[in-house]
Amino acid sequence: MTQSAKSRSLRGLDFINFTLADVRDGIGPFLGIYLLSSQHWNLKDIGIVTSIATFAGVIVQTPAGAFVDRFKNKKIIVAIASLLIGFGTLLILIKPGFTVVVVSQVIVGIAATFIAPSIAAMTLGLVGYKKLEQRTGRNEMFNHSGNVSSAVISGLIGYYLGLRGIFIFTLLLSFASVFFLRFINNEQIDYRLSRGSSSKDEAQDSGSLSAIISNPLFLVFTTCCVLYHFANAAMLPLAGQYIVSANKVDASVYMSACIVIAQLVMVPTAAWSSRKSTNGRKWLMLICFAALPVRGMLYTLSPNPYFITSVQILDGLSAGIFGVVSILIIADLTKGSGHFNLANGILITAIGLGASLSNVTGGYIANMFSFRYAFLFLSAVAALAFVICLLFMKETYDPESE
User: Fold this and answer.
1) Which of 79, 219, 300, 371 is the most buried (most CB within 10 A)?
2) What single-letter DSSP state applies at residue 401?
3) How far is residue 275 from each of residues 268, 279, 362, measured CA to CA in Å?
4) 336 φ, ψ (degrees, to nearest 5)
5) How far apart are CA 211 and CA 334, in angstroms?
6) Torsions phi, psi of 337, nearest 5?
7) φ, ψ (nearest 5 deg) of residue 197
8) On the CB side of 384, how many CA atoms lie within 13 Å of its CA?
9) Distance (Å, rounded) from C-alpha 206 to C-alpha 337?
């Protein structure tokens, strides 16, 4: 295998992370704005349907991780998942009724569960553990850059052509993702490494699934991540709806600005996190968890769209760290076990459960009381994640194991 051939595969991984950034979340927070402003849905129903994608993913995420561990051709997994997300997004555009939107979100939620572990598996299989920090940071940089680009384009499309144009744009990105997969040579992905194994024989892997899920550090970290995503998932959609309700304006441009600001911060934060992660993981996660309750509290101060968008700097800081360090912690905890993607799937399952409940709970509190009460509640949950990490999470990085 030549170095140029390996470089071509890594460039392909760059392109995939860039284009999939917007695809794997469907139309994301724009869905709530579209349903509220164009279809005149109430906040409670919006909270339900925006939770369904995540909740559907919860059901299949763990077996999806196990499947990625076993299935050698990760490219096929990503291609099928990307096309299904594009199709699910198109369904809403064709007929945005409650049943159709629910079916669409189920398709999107299930398909999206296969993308993150597949990308992580391809990354580990291509570069190994010694370069995982650097490559994971690079993945996140391209991912966030893709989010910035797609958010800017989505905002312009929403402003000049209407929110329906964003659906078409997401569909086109799903096709682009499939096209760029051709740059990655599947033969260059080490199947043994891609599942975090130290042995070519799966039966000789050093760790069992039960040993992983009973590991106290895995349980503590998973608990923190569930609380973090429970607090985080509803914040941006609620912020967009807060702007619409308080200012009676089309929030698509402001929502794009929120995403762009956060993603612009995530790009250098991801690079910084990957460099600093060799000094330890825990202190970075504490910064990540601390930024979220502060962000939620700031949202309560004003519905001014310019103020709301400026607060997204904290979202960028927090998410930029989480995207890099969470993968590294799972890699630390599962090294040599052969269950890297399965453990990652279990973590994402737990995260998805928290995120799905977030939208329902946040929407219910906002609908019954006010947006401010919803933000205060989510901030309290985020603060609990920080406290648990501070008191019970130990360092997972071991430089001697490199």
Assistant:
1) 371
2) G
3) 11, 8, 35
4) 85, 0
5) 10
6) -85, -25
7) -100, 150
8) 16
9) 5
> Are 348 and 226 in contact, with CB atoms under 8 Å apart?
no
pTM of the model: 0.77
What's the pLDDT tens digit per position in 40-78? 777 777 777 776 766 777 788 888 888 888 888 888 999
Q: In angstroms, rounded to a whole number, what is the distance separating the alpha carbons of residues 383 and 294?
A: 9
- Residue 359: closest CA among 262, 269, 242, 230: 230
Residue type, 48: I
Residue 328 in contact with residue 200, Cβ under 8 Å?
no
Token pair of 30, please? 């724009």
DSSP 131-160: THHHHHHHHHHHHHHHHHHHHHHHHHHHHH
Domain extent at residue 92? 3-401
Write out the H or E segment, with its range, that includes residue 347.
helix 340-368
d(CA 118, CA 180): 15
Angstrom CA distances, 250 to 27, 118, 133, 174, stand at 16, 37, 40, 26
Total domains in the chain come to 1
Residue type, 291: A
Tens-place pLDDT, residues 194-240: 887 765 545 545 455 666 777 889 999 999 999 999 999 888 888 87
Q: Is 336 helix (H, G, I), strand (E, B) or coil?
A: strand
Distance, CA of 270 to CA of 323 (rounded, Å): 7
- Quick check: 144 and 267 in contact, CB under 8 A? yes
- Cα 15 to its chain centre, rounded Å, is 17
| CATH code, 371 | 1.20.1250.20
Contact 147, 257 (CB under 8 A): no
Q: Six-digit token pair at 204?
A: 């000789």
